[in-house]
Amino acid sequence: MEHHIQPERIGPNGAVMAEAIATCVHCGFCLAACPTYKLLGEEMDSPRGRIVLMKDVLEGTLSVQEAAPYVDQCLGCQACVTACPSGVRYGELLTAYRAHVEPQHQRPLTERLTRVLLRETLPHPTRFRFAATAGRLAQPLKALLPHSLRAMLNLLPAQLPPRAPAFPEVIPAVGQRRARVALLTGCVQQVLQPRINQATIEVLTKQGVEVVIPGGQGCCGALSMHIGEAEHARQLARRNLDVFPTDVDAILANAAGCGSSMKEYGLLFRGTPDEGRAEAFARKVQDVSEFLDALGLRDVRPLPEPLTVAYHDACHLAHAQGIWGAPRRLLAAIPNLQVREIPEAELCCGSAGTYNIEHPDLADQLGQRKARNILSTGATAVVTGNIGCAVQLQTHLARLGKPLPVMHTMELLAQAMPQ
Fold first, then answer.
1. Treating both helix axes as pointing N-terminal to C-terminal, what angle do 147-154 and 109-121 enclose, rounded to 10 degrees?
2. Model pLDDT, residue 389
3. C-alpha to C-alpha distance for 212 and 246, rounded to whole angstroms
4. Nearest to 409 by CA among 299, 347, 318
């Protein structure tokens, strides 16, 4: 596709966007992989259609407002990246494009308020816990709230788990030390499912890994990156650049969305004084399943009872980071466990950061489709590697009257560790 974008006029990521647009040959392989194209059947709701729209905006032949309805409806799941034979870096294009146009985007008041609420609560565990508690009390008034706020309330659990105790800054390995890592503890995950961090630390330490929990760490900036709030994302990410140690073997994430975004810190900080250290940070980032798979498990015990689980691929683990085999190999190492594949495994569950709040109708269709596919496997539990997916799957399995347990990969692996 011919293009006339002038990268130097767009900004530090202009070349990234221009290259991604130029690489697309409009072959159509992405269409079958795209969740919104599957649901809506519109060319402009497909990856190649959105690439044309973004190209036109960057060339100045289309307004940001005209392209926005279609680009906003993209989940950013990057299933198209996996399907693309030309190697179009669609994920980088989308992130850079949203950051470039968001300051020019004149959003309706309700959208602006929703985004402010998300930005000021989700990255801050204490605020989020307070907001979630208030949200449970507001359930009787749900019908009076805007659509997006009703969607937010629908995703909250009936009761929040107790606040987890603070971790020490250094947790030693059990037995001989094999590695030393720093762990991102996340934000939403700390409130909704604190057991994930506890299980992650238990597995790592029992596998001979010393775990550093950097004091002063915070949100990785992923949610802000997803919605084009680049400056806010940099503010959050810069704090982690400041406090995470450099003398570790890896910086680990146990949420796929966080790991994917931290691996893009070079893109986020391009053209800033922090670019060099952001790239160095990003090179150390690994998903916990990726790290443990490379390290190699030892002394894995059988589960007390046989268990059959369905493994759900989080999009930002499978498509964005290309990690398919690692979690499956970890699960396959557990005696007494059977893993079943989910039909349409490549299709997003509809969580996608804040997508199930900002586009609840489409997200609900995808969530219900994923839940039905999970139930078709006959599994009695679900395993995944991302907190957003876990919440979405729990919500839609419950709506179908089949509230199966949904676990993180590390939660299940912790059950197979020596006591």
1. 30
2. 96
3. 11
4. 318
The domain in which residue 113 lies consists of 109-154
Q: How many domains does the chain have?
A: 4
**Per-residue DSSP letter, 410:** H
Structure confidence by residue, pLDDT tens digits, 110-133: 888 888 888 888 888 888 888 888
Q: Which pLDDT band holds residue 282 (cuts at 50, 70, 90)?
A: very high
Q: What is the pLDDT of residues 400-415, one digit of tens each?
A: 999 999 999 999 999 9
Q: Which residues contact 292 (CB under 8 A, 6 or more apart)?
A: 203, 204, 207, 326, 330, 413
Instruction: Return phi, psi of residue 272, to 5°.
Output: -115, 165
**What is the domain-level CATH number for residue 384?**
3.40.50.11810
Query: Taken in order 230, 233, 239, 243, is the CA torsion positive or negative?
Result: negative
pLDDT in tens, 25-72: 999 999 999 999 999 999 999 999 999 999 999 998 999 999 999 999
Residue that terminates a domain, selected from 278, 294, 310:
294
How many helices and strands (H and E) does the chain possess?
Answer: 24, 9
CA atoms lying within 13 Å on the CB side of residue 106: 3
CA distance 150 to 144: 9
Furthest C-alpha separation in the chain: 64
pLDDT at res. 43: 95
Beta bridge partners of 383: 311, 407
Sign of CA dihedral 309, 314, 317, 318: positive
Whole-angstrom distance, CA of residue 271 vs CA of residue 24: 25
pLDDT of residue 144: 67
CATH number at residue 211: 3.40.50
- Burial of 29: CB neighbours in 10 Å, binned 0-12, 13-18, 19+: middle
Give domain status of residue 316, yes or no: yes
